[in-house]
TrEMBL record:
This is Uncharacterized protein with ParB-like and HNH nuclease domain. Residues 464-604 form the GmrSD restriction endonucleases C-terminal domain. PANTHER family: DUF5655 DOMAIN-CONTAINING PROTEIN, SLL5132 PROTEIN. It comes from Eilatimonas milleporae. Residues 12-258 form the GmrSD restriction endonucleases N-terminal domain.
Length: 612
């Protein structure tokens, strides 16, 4: 397997006579807000060190590629197999620098009598803009007697048009989640530069800071390992080897190696052997689960997430801070390290339960099966794992208080994230903060404190107007993906008696003896989805997929109702054990106006139910 490698600076990576392209059908841009924040923080630390006449090196990881020849050109093009997130983020940084330089130049040019320093800055900026554009953004090459200009980096088919428009300074509409992520990264990189340059600084001072960023941070301090092969198949095999469990170490593997190395002394040999056995138990889960569990564990105990690029170092600095390799470890220190890994092992078992939606207590003292099912719905149906650090801590409470907190989280998540699509970072930060509050004193922790904090996030990011508008616009999709509507109607049925009695205080299910089998609960159209002949009504056809025309049936009800008319379904609805269905069956007819009214009724109810 032939592979070339080079450890080089960011600038050297780009200054070769080459272009980069992400394969047309490779995955989309995937870095989320946390990853971009880490990226910006690393750049900021390197820049700050230079501004203080120092130096800070940072390794940005590897880039695996296949080198391809370009017909009619002497330049090679590298197909990016792994590393598209960092290379595309670096290109966006370069474009943001160009725009910052152009803005500073424009401000100097409108000055009536620019200072000598500003004049020098203007000359530097104009020359550097061209340098950066040719280095990071575009490649100019001759074909015959004609010059052509192509992007230095081309992304996948799903992202490239949007990406190039962003680099050009346009504001294209987002059409997919990856576009939202690109746009967020672009905005964050621009805000980073604005903050680093300072609003009150002189033009020459800003130019000097940018010079440090370009000539030192990117050219010397920030590096990658660039790996390539002339054979695409070999390059893909390299990628697979690097990401194989047997070769590429997980953060758990690295922690195991580093802690066992700390205990590599005759005096603590017995503890080292015990530590090795405990690590074997701790790392028995799939690699992807281990990575998640480490992040959740750290966040639950520290109140902040570890940096994803430095998980191992974060654990060594904070959770294993008792010792270093500089001097032999003491038995007391070795015992503390073993105790931490034992805690990891126990909590990984807890996280494995929670992540599967399993009730984490040996019994159900003080709770009903309905309460138990809330956890499964939160994790398995709403697919919300960001709250794991908090759920870990809440397990320190007695079952009843744990159940109360989970029910509040379930209602919050549906409103805030499932329907509101609010950014998850504020909620994740809140989960970490609340986890620390629980751990500080579980005996005095009040679930009401959590409800209040969740309520403040709802007011800020998922207010009544936003939520009611989103609920009223919910419609059935014949192509599937209607689980959120089924969940909504199931939840409203659970809280229907509480709502009917005045909807006072914290939402409560007044009949916990009935637990929906969510997997066997189906959506049913009141006016049929596929009406035929004389039963087809034009006004109702227009609104048949609206929320107000949808209800939930059990499997037997659904078989009996099938695609019947409202008149034929009415008897089934009237005899239903669900209040929502009996309310529909109370009507003598079913019209477009009834559907509109029921939609509003469900919206009004949802506003009361979906609060923490």
């Amino acid at each position: 397997m032939t592979i070339e490698t080079a450890h080089q600076s960011i600038t050297v990576l780009f200054e070769q006579n080459q272009t980069f392209e992400v394969p047309k059908y490779q995955r989309e841009y995937a870095w989320d807000a946390d990853a971009i924040e880490d990226f910006v923080e690393d750049l900021g630390k390197c820049l700050e060190a230079r501004l203080q006449n120092g130096k800070r090196n940072h390794f940005f990881g590897g880039i695996v590629s296949a080198r391809l020849n370009v017909p009619g050109s002497s330049r090679p093009s590298y197909e990016v197999i792994d590393g598209q997130q960092r290379i595309s983020s670096l290109v966006m940084l370069a474009a943001a620098v160009v725009f910052a330089m152009k803005a500073i130049s424009a401000n100097i040019e409108v000055e009536e009598e620019p200072s000598e320093e500003d004049g020098k800055a203007l000359d530097y900026l104009k020359q550097t803009i061209a340098k950066i554009e040719s280095l990071f953004l575009t490649h100019r090459y001759a074909v015959g007697l004609e010059y052509k200009v192509v992007p230095k980096l081309t992304l996948s088919k799903a992202d490239n048009v949007f990406f190039q428009a962003i680099l050009a300074g346009n504001n294209p509409p987002t059409e997919r989640p990856s576009h939202d992520r690109i746009k967020y990264a672009w905005q964050r990189l621009n805000s980073f530069l604005a903050s680093a340059l300072g609003a009150e600084e002189t033009a020459s001072s800003k130019a000097t800071k940018l010079q440090h960023l370009i000539d030192h941070v990117l050219a010397e301090d920030c590096t990658v390992i660039f790996m390539w092969s002339d054979n695409r198949s070999e390059a893909y095999r390299i990628f697979q080897v690097l990401n194989d469990r047997g070769v590429s170490l997980t953060n758990g593997d690295l922690l195991r190696a580093r802690t066992l190395e700390l205990l590599d002394h005759k005096a603590v040999e017995t503890t080292q052997n015990e530590l090795a056995e405990r690590w074997d138990s701790t790392l028995a889960y799939p690699p992807s689960s281990i990575d998640d569990y480490l992040l959740w564990y750290f966040g639950s105990y520290q109140g902040v997430r570890p940096r994803q690029s430095d998980v191992t170092d974060s654990f060594m600095e904070v959770r294993f801070a008792e010792a270093s390799l500089d001097k032999p470890i003491t038995q007391s220190q070795a015992t503390k390290i073993l105790a931490e890994v034992k805690r990891l092992d126990d909590d990984f078992a807890l996280l494995n339960q929670l992540n599967s939606g399993e009730w984490p207590y040996a019994d159900q003292t003080g709770v009903k099966q309905w309460d138990v099912e809330r956890l499964n719905l939160l994790v398995s149906h709403l697919k919300h794992t960001n709250a794991m650090p908090l759920l870990m801590a809440l397990r320190l409470l007695e079952p009843k208080r744990f159940a109360e907190a989970v029910a509040s989280l379930e209602r919050f998540v549906f409103r805030y994230k499932t329907i509101g699509s609010a950014h998850i970072s504020p909620a994740t930060k809140l989960y970490h903060e609340q986890a620390l509050l629980v751990r500080n004193d579980p005996s005095t922790y009040k679930v009401g404190v959590l409800r209040t904090a969740l309520g403040e996030l709802i007011e800020k990011y998922a207010s009544g107007n936003r939520f009611s508008a989103a609920i009223s616009e919910l419609t059935y999709s014949p192509r599937g993906g209607n689980g959120h509507i089924r969940y909504l109607l199931t939840a409203l049925e659970d809280y229907a008696k509480w709502y009917e009695s005045g909807a006072n205080g914290v939402p409560k299910c007044k009949d916990k003896t009935r637990v929906f089998d969510f997997s066997n609960t189906t959506l049913e159209h009141v006016y049929p989805r596929s009406a035929k002949g004389a039963e087809k009504i034009e006004d109702l056809e227009k609104v048949k997929h609206a929320l107000g025309n949808l209800t939930i049936f059990g499997p037997n009800d659904n078989d009996a109702a099938a695609n019947k008319s409202f008149a034929d379904k009415r008897t089934i609805l009237q005899a239903s054990n669900l209040k929502l269905n009996r309310d529909i069956g109370a009507h003598a007819d079913w019209t477009a106006e009834r559907i509109k009214q029921r939609t509003q009724s469900l919206v009004d109810m949802a506003l009361k139910v979906f609060v923490p």
